[in-house]
Design goal:
Family: Belongs to the aerobic coproporphyrinogen-III oxidase family.
CATH superfamily: Coproporphyrinogen III oxidase, aerobic
CATH class: Alpha Beta
Strand order of the largest sheet: 1-2-3-4-5-6-7-10
Radius of gyration: 20 Å
Shape: globular
CATH architecture: 3-Layer(aba) Sandwich
Helix content: 25-40%
Subunit structure: Homodimer.
Pathway: Porphyrin-containing compound metabolism; protoporphyrin-IX biosynthesis; protoporphyrinogen-IX from coproporphyrinogen-III (O2 route): step 1/1
Organism: Brachypodium distachyon (Purple false brome)
Strand content: 15-25%
Subcellular location: Plastid, Chloroplast
CATH topology: oxygen-dependent coproporphyrinogen oxidase
Number of helices: 11
Length: about 325
């Protein structure tokens, strides 16, 4: 397992000898820009509410190739914890990591018995946990993968694909906010293919399913993975458009609710829902699994988890309450627009 090397500042690029016009180079440029813009927008919200918390930045490199930038703000006036990661890594991954990244492709290629797989993976991810229970948690992640032939399957072609999505996890159902959020996702999708939003909205509902609970993590958004069924240039532009939609989708909702008064009961319910967030990320999330199995930077991999969460024995909200309405939507996903 490779250990990362801390760096005093991020290098201009984590790539080695890559043409600036390549998909790898352009994707790295995009994710670093998006990270900077989202962190700046969140710091502006924090400052606008009288808070002084700012993002701490850690840069690191990986001996086998690549590196990353982790930015974390915690203990703020608006944000309990907000994190934005960029990683650009490459080298060779073990077979179990390949199965985590592409379970269907690995099975088709007989990767159960295959050797290490040369790979490239780059992505930007962010999770934002506000203090106020009426301000929803937001998650987004956009990534680009390439794999070479399995080492014991010579002659196989290089594979590439895009993945990602943006999803909303409120503690309380505020339909106007959820409709706004989904409308922005749909607009980003419709610029490229009107079939994308319904397809990726359904995929999001299915992916963020906490199977042992029989409920979804939140109210969804869009999600896609292993996406290579269109021209690479088009999908790079599409992924960029989705990443650029994060700020207009989320910041207006955050501004509306960040200073709303709340009770200890509201806070306790938020903590219970954050417990569900932890369960999904540690048990089901493919990105977390991939990072752990490729010897990734643990602090960055687990940065999505909230500072605090809560579990109560056999907790069930009373039917008809606002808390029950949220749970009902998580069990029975609905169309918002």
């Amino acid at each position: 397992m490779e250990r990362e090397t801390p760096e005093p500042a991020p290098p201009p690029t984590f790539l080695r000898g890559e043409d600036s016009s390549s998909a790898r180079a352009r994707f790295e440029c995009m994710i670093r820009r998006v990270q900077a813009e989202v962190c700046a927008a969140l710091e502006a919200v924090e400052e606008g509410s009288g808070g002084g918390a700012v993002f701490r930045e850690d840069a690191w490199t990986r001996p086998g190739g690549g590196g990353g930038i982790s930015r974390v703000l915690q203990g703020g006036r608006v944000f309990e914890k907000a994190a934005g990661n960029v990683s650009v890594v490459y080298g060779v991954m073990p077979p179990d990591a390949y199965r985590a990244a592409r379970p269907e492709a690995a099975a088709a290629a007989g990767a159960e018995k295959a050797g290490p797989v040369p790979f490239f993976a780059a992505g930007v991810s962010s999770v934002i946990h506000p203090n106020n229970p009426f301000a929803p948690t937001l998650h987004f992640n956009y990534r680009y993968f390439e794999t070479e032939a399995l080492q014991d399957v010579p002659g196989a072609p290089r594979q590439w694909w895009f993945g990602g999505g943006t999803d909303l996890t409120p503690s309380y159902i505020i339909e106007e906010d959820i409709q706004h959020f989904h409308s922005v996702q749909k607009q980003a999708c419709d610029k490229f293919d009107p079939r994308f939003y319904p397809r990726f909205k359904r995929w999001c509902d299915d992916y963020f399913h906490i199977k042992h609970r029989g409920e979804r993590r939140g109210v969804g958004g869009i999600f896609f993975d292993d996406l290579n069924d269109h021209d690479q240039e088009m999908l790079l532009d599409f992924t960029t458009g989705c990443a650029d939609s994060v700020i207009p989708a989320y910041i207006p909702i955050l501004e509306r609710w960040k200073d709303t008064p709340f009770t200890e009961d509201h806070r306790a319910w938020q903590q219970l829902r954050r417990g569900r967030y932890v369960e999904f990320n540690l048990v089901y999330d493919r990105g977390t699994t991939f990072g752990l199995k490729t010897g990734g930077r643990i602090a960055s991999i687990l940065v999505s988890l909230p500072l605090t969460a809560r579990w109560e024995y056999d907790h069930k909200p009373e039917v008809g309450t606002e808390e029950w309405k949220l749970l009902d939507v998580c069990i029975n996903p609905k169309e918002w627009i």
